[in-house]
Amino acid sequence: xxxxxxxxxxxxxxxxxxxxxxxxxxxxxxxxxxxxxxxxxxxxxxxxxxxxxxxxxxxxxxxxxxxxxxxxxxxxxxxxxxxxxxxxxxxxxxxxxxxx
Length: 100
Fold this sequence. Notes:
The chain is mainly alpha-helical and 100 residues long. 70% of the residues lie in helices and 0% in strands.
């Protein structure tokens, strides 16, 4: 097995790639940039950068999916509340949507 010594610079690049998760969305570009610039120089830094970019991309996809699910469930809940207002005569009117 060919093991590459991980120097301080390679560990710093790996930490930068993984630490860029705090910049949601832009952090993916940091990981990809480190991967592209160091794939020939350092196998360790390139692998860690690619791993961080893939993790952040999957995380972004899950978050966007959860936003859509929340929006659908929110709208279904509002439909149920509006339907309940039609049945109960003393209920508050539905919110004004801005359309005539």
